Amino acid sequence: DTEVTQTPKHLVMGMTNKKSLKCEQHMGHRAMYWYKQKAKKPPELMFVYSYEKLSINESVPSRFSPECPNSSLLNLHLHALQPEDSALYLCASSQGEASGSKSEAFFGQGTRLTVV
Amino acid sequence: GEDVEQSLFLSVREGDSSVINCTYTDSSSTYLYWYKQEPGAGLQLLTYIFSNMDMKQDQRLTVLLNKKDKHLSLRIADTQTGDSAIYFCAERGYIPTFGRGTSLIVHP
User: Fold this and answer.
1) Which one, out of A29, A101, B9, B89, has a CA that is 20 to 30 A from the CA of A49?
2) Which backbone phi and psi does B83 adopt, to 5 degrees?
3) Measured distance CA(B24)–CA(B26) in Å, rounded
4) 10-residue averages of pLDDT along chain A (116 residues)
5) Residue B1: its pLDDT value, please?
6) How far is CA B99 from CA A55, A81, A99, B13, in A?
7) Residue A4: its chain B contacts at CB < 8 A?
8) Does pLDDT of B2 surpass 60?
9) How many C-beta neighbours within 10 Å does residue B27 have?
10) Is A85 touching B (CB cutoff 8 A)?
11) Contact between chains at B44 and A107 (C-beta distance less than 8 A)
12) Distance between CA atoms of residues A4 and A24, nearest Å
């Protein structure tokens, strides 16, 4: 099983709403990632969790709040988003985040988020 | 910092070969990857190559690596309309770093 599952697939939310994106993997991977991807652009890293601890936050605004309840789950809590936050949000996982290892990252299908 | 460059577009005729090129700057990258993204979908890992290899072949896909020039290419033989997608090369340093992506358009 090399699957990373993201829910929901699509989400429309107002600027005052609170919502959460969910990501799940059962490959025993210890590193999990959130990326944001705008149309026709490469994915941009937002957060990295390693062994359930936040290891990288790429200066992401606090209206995005990640959470890693256990080694298989990664959430992204959203609050007071702006229309420019509309994008495809991708979750990925890998065996580890160490450089030099064959830790290819497997991606989910993403959540298409629209903020109105 | 790391930087990965790709040409933005490639248009080929069905049945021809496609070659997508990528250059990277981080010489410490041990593995380099190619991902495919179809419209509205996530990223699908296509193949990878270890940095001590020059070439890797996997069915219709051939990856060539010139480590001296930090140049990576993906050749797709007998390109099909289903191969139309955006192709990202990525280097695996501390975190995956992606190129801008090459849009492959396959004409019947």
Assistant:
1) B89
2) -85, -10
3) 6
4) 89 96 94 93 92 91 96 96 96 74 81 96
5) 38
6) 23, 27, 18, 24
7) 42
8) no
9) 11
10) no
11) yes
12) 6
Does the distance separating the beta carbons of B95 and A90 come in below 8 Å? Answer: no
Task: Give the up-direction half-sphere exposure of residue A39: CA atoms within 13 A in the CB hemisphere.
Answer: 7
Residues of A in contact with B40 (CB under 8 A): 88, 112
Contact B48 A56 (CB under 8 A): no
Please answer whether residues B5 and B100 qualify as being in contact, where contact means their C-beta atoms are separated by less than 8 angstroms.
yes
Between chain A and chain B, the number of residue pairs with CB atoms below 8 A apart is 66
Question: Residue B27's closest chain A neighbor by CA?
Answer: A100
DSSP run (H or E) holding B65: strand B61-66
CA dihedral B3, B5, B8, B9 (to 10 degrees): -150
Q: Do A110 and B42 touch (CB under 8 A)?
A: yes
User: Which residue in the block uniquely carries the two structure tokens 């495919």?
Assistant: B36
pLDDT at B28 over 90: no
B72: amino acid identity, one letter = L
